[in-house]
Amino acid sequence: MKDIVIFGAPGAGKGTQSDYIVQHYGLTHVSTGDLLRKEIADQTELGLRIKSLMDNGQLVSDDIVIEMIDKAIAADTRGILFDGFPRTVTQAETLDRLLAKYGRELTCMVDLEVPQEELMRRLLERAKIQGRSDDNETTIAHRLEEYRTKTLPVADYYAAQGKKIVIDGLGTVEEIATRVRQSIG
Ligand code: AP5
Ligand code: MG
Question: Is the Cβ–Cβ distance between 14 and 121 less than 8 Å?
Fold first, then answer.
């Protein structure tokens, strides 16, 4: 069983590459961003609490996402592709602990590297088509700042464990999917 983290800045292509990875390895796709957006769309109590944070491009609290991930691992028997999680070192440490609780261990972390101008270009392009409420220039800048200050240390956490695989995230979607497959094996 494989448990994999897909990692990268906002707009790096985590969601896009997730579709290929889950299909190839038969994994369950768990995107904390998608789960949180569903809470907002359903207007749950949690959704109402987190909407302004997400609209501002700030991370929601570790406790909230960790509870979601605990439930997802408990319900899964195939292996999980974690998309958008972990985003803080606390989340990464907790993921190791939660997987161990179920006798599992993270296989690897795939880090999609894309230059900042390209991230901005992709997200502003998507804004025209999809209208995600956090895809505007001001909020994207906040998301990139959160990534730099709180999430980048997670990459070092996995590098120290020898689990970080760096992938050039520039190119066509299919080219990148091939690179990812070849490096995961
Ligand atoms: P989340 O939903 O995870 O968003 P994000 O990390 O900002 O990243 P995106 O989903 O925007 O980008 P992506 O890397 O998935 O790229 P995509 O494939 O879509 O998080 C949203 C918010 O939720 C956070 O700000 C935070 O508030 C909260 N949150 C979520 N998880 C959390 C956590 N663990 N802890 C705390 N808070 C959390 O691609 C982007 C665009 O580029 C698309 O239009 C796509 O078609 C295009 N594209 C993709 N690949 C290519 C390519 N190769 N060439 C050209 N275009 C491409
Ligand atoms: Mg995404």
Answer: no
Quick: pLDDT tens for 135-180: 999 999 999 999 999 999 999 999 999 999 999 999 999 999 999 9
Q: Which ligand is nearest to the CA of 34?
A: 1
In the chain, % of residues over pLDDT 90 = 98
Q: Is the entire prediction scored with pTM above 0.85?
A: yes
Which atom of ligand 1 is the closest one to the Cα of 146?
Answer: 25
**Ligand 2 (ion): which residues have CB within 5 A?**
14-15
Point out the ligand 1 atom lying closest to the alpha carbon of residue 173: 53
Query: Which residues line the pocket of ligand 1, CB cutoff 6 A?
Result: 8, 10-16, 32-33, 36, 53-54, 57-60, 65, 84-85, 87, 91, 122, 126, 134, 143, 172-173, 176
C-alpha–C-alpha distance, residues 86 and 2, integer Å: 16
